[in-house]
Amino acid sequence: MDSEKTSRQVLKGIPSSHDGMSSAPRKKFKKPGDQTVDIAEIAEGVKSGSRLFLGKAITLLESLNPHHKKQGQELLNQLLPLTGNSIRIGITGVPGAGKSTFIETFGEMLTALGHRVAVLAIDPSSSLTGGSILGDKTRMEQLARNPNAFIRPSPTAGTLGGVHKKTRETMLLCEAAGYDIILVETVGVGQSETLVRGMVDMFLLLVLTGAGDELQGMKKGILELADAIIVHKADSENARLAKKTVAEYKSMLHFLQPATDGWKTQALAASSLEKTGIPEIWDLVQQFEQNVQESGNWKKRRQTQTKDWFRSMITDQLHSRFFEDPAKRSQVKELEQQVLEGELTVSQAISFLFE
Questions:
Q1: Residue 13: closest CA among 108, 99, 135, 130
Q2: Hey, which bits of 188-311 come out as E strands?
Q3: Tens digit of pLDDT for each residue in 291-326?
Q4: Between 1.20.120.420, 3.30.70.360, 3.40.50.300, 3.40.190.10, what CATH number should domain 2-19+82-295 receive?
Q5: What is the crossing angle of helices 39-47 and 51-62, to 10°?
Q6: CA distance 220 to 33
Q7: Where do the structural domains in the chain lie, given as residue ranges?
Q8: Most buried one in 40, 66, 186, 330, CB count within 10 A?
């Protein structure tokens, strides 16, 4: 097909490095640490496509300062009409599958085709500092220099499944800044896959060649989340083995429930090193979008995701407000001690707590 030929030609023509940065305006503005953040200025900067302003807007949203939280939501509300016009792709994989290498190669090809790509890399947080451990900009140096790409390592900050609570809102800000393809890389710790599946349109699972033991050890639930399985590092002596692995996955997929209604989960091989199979993955993404749009499931999935987000935020807010009450915090400690000493059952303590 023409698009396949074009993407292949573009991929081969990608230079080894990119010079220059975004031409978007680099205006001076107040830092989010300042209580007098100019929301209108940041909004205009995001709309102009400035990576600098986009980064500051995300920092404002992630702030734990109550005043900044309010300002962040005001900013998001101003930008909301510009959101929703991207393809959101979740990417996960077994350890060593080469997620970052794949994302960099895939992202480079997409930007060369004229797209703007945002990468939200969910980093595990240090249990000591709460900071991001992996530092994805150091793992995707070439893509980080690309003026049409934006990479945001986002620490998990201890949230369930390793997905930062603000990832959904960050996606909206990226869309408002003109990024039409958003790639969300998960930690790959189990629960994070389920949560990311609930915020993207398409979910890719990267695996390695030689499926044998891997197929036996991989959880069925993870496979059922995937819209496509990419057998990665299918290069050199692995190329022949990769074809066999793809066949094994295709055989297995016949017995699994598809992740998306009306779409049959696909399996294919790719090599980021040799840049083979990458254009076919983009073709598959476009085919997926067309198929799901025509069936009406695209809009339905987005609405379901928004409803789930709304309800999860209710839970977060209830939890936050509960523990903000000094009297409740004190009561929790007292009841907790009574439970540990065997004076109360857990159910009794909860009943006392909510009387």
A1: 108
A2: 202-207, 228-231, 266-269
A3: 999 999 999 999 999 998 889 888 888 888 888 889
A4: 3.40.50.300
A5: 130
A6: 45
A7: 2-19+82-295, 302-353
A8: 186
